[in-house]
Request: fold
Amino acid sequence: MNASELFALLPLVAMATGIVVVMLISAFSRTHATVSRMSAITLLITLACLPLVSSVTPIGVTPLLIVDGFGLLFCGVIVGASFSICLMAYPYWHVRDVEREEFYLLLLIATLGAMVLVLSKHMVSLLLGLEMMGISLFAMAAYNSRLKRQHLHADRQEESDRSLEAGLKYLVLSALASALLLFGMALIYLETGQLDFSRAPFSALGTTTLIFYAGTALLLTGIGFKLSLFPFHMWTPDVYEGAPAPVTSFIATISKGAIFAVALRYFVGSESLANPAVFTAVGIIAALSMLCGNWLALMQKDLKRMLAYSSIAHLGYLMIAFLALQTQSMRFAVEASSLYVITYIVTSLVAFGIVILLSSKQTGTSREISDLQLYQGLFWRHPVLATALSIAMLSLAGIPLTLGFVGKFYLLSAGAEAGLWWLLAALIAGSAIGLYYYLRVITALFTTGASKEAQWEPGPLYASSSAILLVLTINLIVFGTFPQPLLESVQLLTTTLAESTSFTASAQ
Amino acid sequence: MILVSLILLLFAGGIVAWLAEYLNPKLPRWVALASLGVALLLLAQMGPQFSIDTTEARAGQTWDLIFIAPWIPRFGIQFIFAADSLSYLMLLLTVVLGIIALISGWNEIKQRTGFFYFNVMWVLAGVVGIFTSMDMFLFFFFWEVMLIPMYFIIAIWGHENRSYAAIKFFIFTQVSGLLMLLAIIVMAILQARLTGTLSFNYFEWLQIANQGLIDPEISRYLMFGFFVAFVVKLPSFPFHTWLPDAHTQAPTPGSVILAGILLKTGAYGLLRFVLPLFPEASMEFAPIAMGLGAISIIYGASMAFAQEDVKRLIAYSSISHMGFVTLAAFAASTVALQGAVMTMLSHGLSSAALFAMAGAIQHRLHSRNFSDMGGLWQSAPRFGACMLFFCLAALGLPGLANFVGEFLVLLGSFEANPALVSIAALGMIAAPVYALMVMQKIFHGKPKPGTELADLDGRESGMLAVLIVLTVYLGFFPQGVLSLLEPLLNTTSQLALVATGTSL
Reply:
């Protein structure tokens, strides 16, 4: 390992150092504010390292990792999202009677895992990153079960039980998914003799054997679980609903984004999608995810649960760009899917951010504010928060003026360019269903005669959490209307993935 | 630049109106009125460029006030604003009816006035954008942006079943819009494959279309994508079901804007995009499209007859009248197209007036149901007279604008499809039945004890007087508008004629 390779690891090193510091602080001087601030600073420093490192990219570091524009772009998104969650979570934990400090530690470790994932080009680093993130997430999802039991109000008791349930469900199903993934890797290794993503492309395989199909199927199943694609989505609504809102937002944004990024890298390198059977299977999964996700979201009464089903649909949409990878327009497909992930992450952060902020009630007599009934008439009491949530909903629905529209425009273009007409039809049908429940939220926000139950007051809004939410919301609008700078940088950073992998593939 | 400032003026007017609420809840409507007044002045200033003399002098060069600026260079998307005589007439209609809509709801909106006028102004800005943007992405952008404020107008200030109506309206328009977006994207990709550069520029697309470079098979699908979006907005049978709900539930200014302006965006799209970009595919499709138009005419009229709700009745009559536009658009004749535009203008005026009066009745009697009315002429003679005038206009009384439009449509389309046009002409018989029924049920008969209608006040009389003058003027002197449109519509119908010639 030479100096520039070591330098390329700077973001990971900065992050790991920060984790150690935060751990020491929470051991020796436990205060919520210090730990939270230190975590935020760690994330900021890591974020600042990314542009520095971009001078040496693309560079392979050990056989395990590759630091290229694509990876750095996703690292940036992940760290930025983690920073936002860190700030927004502060008031949420402040009113809850738990050991708050370790949450930030877990958050940072999970973020580090996600970074490793998006930089990995090898099965081993994939698994390392995946488990580092996954294991932190079990603990995080069950975090509210640590609410101190004495003098606990019934509502909080329920919140605590659900959190435990969410943690356990996530543990069991995530472990199952990892096991399947691991077995799939083993079968693929048996077939190709390679663990590096791009060393054994599908085109180099002489004949496609049953082992290849079995391995790829298991791999897809594992990834499908983690991305909550139909029919592997069953865990999603319960975990989304039960986990504390900041953790839900992590699972919805960073976890899915990172896993999608690594899947993208693997499928670009291995060219498995060139196999018609694999292609068809992914296509069916995608179409069913769009339709079922949207369909199941229709009648949900809980915002977090609704967003869970909507995320199934959105990942289904994303698969359109994913399937376009193995066509002429591969470079555009990479760009489109990266952009869509980014728009989805920013939008979800705003949506969940509102839930987090509203759930930071001082009184402690009620659980999280995620029942849609509680949102009735919010606009007339808190116009700014309600406007932000409306914008997030419109962005999820893909209405112009918002970032979500730019993402949808990209998907439609990528799909049209690749000629995936049936999937585009499913997308349009899915969006039609989807509109209904997004509009239902907006309608609730603007209801004029709100019920008595909805006449609650949120706790005081902390400057830092409100500020980050405001910044994210403004980005939704500004980049939704003038996307050019965003598109240019995504295009620039993602071309490296398309080029570097096709280069290594052809060199083999 | 003047078009951009027009759009920005309306957007800014909306924001100022919203903020003005914090000073005084009565201020926003004045802000909105003032900015629409300025918009009218701007349009008047543009007037000379679109007079008959200048159009003739420019001979063929029909576009004016072109504004181009880069927007998203990654996809070759630009801000392109331009106007021709069709756009100009539509802009005039938009601003005039915008003012009418404000006046019609002057005292109706008492709650959250700032946000209401913000939404009204943004709808109008979106519509102005639709009528002037010549970049297809930009066009789609405005097409969708206009939806959100309209959704809020219905969902917040509407009547008893408002959220259902608002969501239905939004889903219908948005989904059909997505089909159009897909068609736009595919067209742009085709354009890129042919010329090497990605562009959403309408003028460049026209060139490709005129050279016949688009594969006829693909062209059919693309035409269909655009067609569905526009026909849903128009609306034509069988995509009309959102309209009666949306119109009935919307507050008075919302209904006026919906019927008077928003429906015209669909008709405008057919004339501006579907025909010129896909002449051959359109002509192949013409029998079906004209059939839908004829069905809409008869179906709308007979459904209108069966209604017990004033606003619902007027809504169904709109479907019937817009059927004439669909019929004419695909007839490949200049006269029919002139009739279509004339119908758009006259239906805009008359339906705005009818909805304003229906709203006024509801405001006074708190009911839209015929069973709660009857014999109201005694208490409100002026009201009755105005209603009679616009009912006569709607049924196509010669001498009023609607007659000119529908007559030209039937005259021009007859050659293209005699059978369908004969059926459509039956609509001219059905219209008097429902229009006179409105008069009879509301104003004639025995007065119900206890129901008295306050007569029109000065504000309402003035507003209706303007609409009456315009309707009579266009009815007696339609030639000005017709010659203004002739060069433009000639080119469109020529394209279609050439297309039928080749496809035969």
